Amino acid sequence: MMNSSKKSFSIRDLENLSGIKAHTIRIWEKRYNLLSPERTETNIRTYSLESLQKLLNITLLYNSGSKISKISKIKEEDIPLLVNEIIAKNSEKHHAINAFKLAMVNFDTHQFYNTYNSLVADRSFKELFNEVFIPLMTELGMLWQSKTISPAHEHFISSLIKQKIYIQTEKYQKLPPTKEAPVYVLYLPEGEVHEIGLLFLNYELVSRGHKTIFLGQSNSIHSLKELLNYYDNLNFVSYFTISPGPDELDRYFEAFSNELRGNNSKLMILGYQTQKLQSKPNFDFVEIFESIAHFTAQLPN
Hints:
CATH class of the largest domain: Mainly Alpha
Oligomer: single chain
CATH topology of the largest domain: Multidrug-efflux Transporter Regulator, Chain: A, Domain 2
Mean pLDDT: 85
Low-confidence stretches: 1-5
Number of helices: 13
Order of helices and strands: EHHEEHHHHHHHEHEHEHEEH
Helix content: 40-55%
CATH architecture of the largest domain: Orthogonal Bundle
Number of strands: 8
Radius of gyration: 22 Å
Shape: elongated
Distance between the termini: 43 Å
Structural class: alpha/beta
């Protein structure tokens, strides 16, 4: 795991972040002098944060239909202005995702908010989350695993997205729930900290009038037992992204059964680790959902 913010990028990093093939980036360098990489002592190209930002801006213009020969003639200081105009006028998914990536690599909160505000002008928050934030976070997860971006980048953009979910959720939490049962307990297991999906599930539930108890990150099974003293008919909802791992799932379900099967409780799970189950778990109280859309589709109106 990287411990510091990245300031030097390989051509493979640029390919991963921009979606432009390394071969094409080299051609753009040679033919149009669009980027000026530095070279290591062993003659390997490296690119600065400024070069990455410029390439992402160029990619936005290129994906909007501008020819690379035309882009190469634009003054460098004018490129960000044209990009902002495109973002304001065109909120297609790939433009929005690239704009958020630009905000991330520059730790630019202002650009994040400008992009967000342009998107919510003509779509609901649910549409924005499903169409832009989910694919963005999926892509960022792959970029983080490949060490293209640092934990600092991921934490920066994640915290901003969480803020937006909190704001939207609070609008409904001020209202009394219209559906008293079942009560949904949203939590992450011990060692699990990736909570954006869980936060959005909480938003989906409260916006539909359901009563929720949001517990957040890293909860032991035993700590959840206290809730059985207060409610019947509990639905525990969790995201298994990292933990428990594939070899620990059956033990986790068994421990859950021993501690929390009272009061007709269920365990509803989503996340990457559930993909590793060869078949449905051998526990009738466990329900597995492939996605947030799959989960919300089964909710009563």
